[in-house]
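Lecture 7 notes: from sequence to structure.
We start with the chain below.
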Amino acid sequence: MRGERYLAFLDKFVKAIHERWPRAIIQWEDLAKEVAFAVLERYRKQIPSFNDDIQGTGAVALAGLLSASRLKGESLRDQRIVIHGAGAGGAGVAWAITQGLIREGLSQEEARDRVCVIDSRGLLVEGRTVEAYKHYYLQPREKVAGWPIVNEVPTLMETIEHTKATALLGLSGQAGSFNHPIVQAMARNTARPIIFPLSNPTSACEALPEDILEWSEGRAIVATGSPFPDVVRDGQVHHIGQGNNAFIFPGLGFGAILAECREITDSMVLEAAYALAEYTAAAHLQAGRVYPPIGELREVSVRVGVRVIEQALREGVAGKTDLAGRDLDAYLRSRFWKPRYLPIVRGDHTAMIDHPGY
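Predicted structure tokens for the same chain:
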């Protein structure tokens, strides 16, 4: 289904969910980019909901970029970012990073200037015909007017070179697109380039971590979307963090449920990102990690949930207002599900013979 028929069907779906489970949260997932943004905006005030491909990906990428900036001894506002891939994930990452830059004191125009987005045709720049959700990320035509480029639209390489990019994030699904020349161009721009090939599965990853480290002479800070083993180079261990949305959506949904939120706001999503970044800095900065190990997901989810509830209370979207002033960490932990499995006992196969209906 397409168009109005599609939206009419979703209207019925959302209405039925809300009537049957009035406190339910919807996590939108794997919607085509043509409708993902429209669906999010259509229903987010009708029922508490979020799109993990857009907002979850954006939050986890922002958290990783904050961690990588700390490893460099810099801040987010010191970075010049290129995002390769302009689907739902790429646009979500661009949104989150732009909001992070504004949070660090940049104006909206300054923040947009620092974030360049590349789609299949090249840099998003004024004068191009693009989908509505890409309009916000179009760079001014005068910005590229003086660039010596081959065609009308700057390529990934030309954008990296002319913006002096310090961070490159891949959400293109194009395996091998971060090749040797691309990584070397990043390494010429900064002593420690941040390079995150975030596309998954592994077969879609823009570059292998060991190749990025080889081509950058071990200087790159690398994180991926798929799980990769750590890389040992010249006796140094490089931890390859996994920018997994699972660091965000369980805590985001859990906090929103416990606070009985009427809406999941953009600010709640951003708080989830900062909770992850701050946990990583406190627990793993000395080890040089961009993300925590996946084994610490439960602890991260508690920290994320606390920050989400705090923001919901500040914005007045929490239905459970008696949480204000309470120990939210203890509150979440007391309600956190803990799997407990009964021991597995070998059965008596004769019972099945003696009692065929067993």
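Points to note: DSSP finds 14 helices and eleven strands in the chain. Residues 76 and 226 are 24 Å apart (CA to CA).
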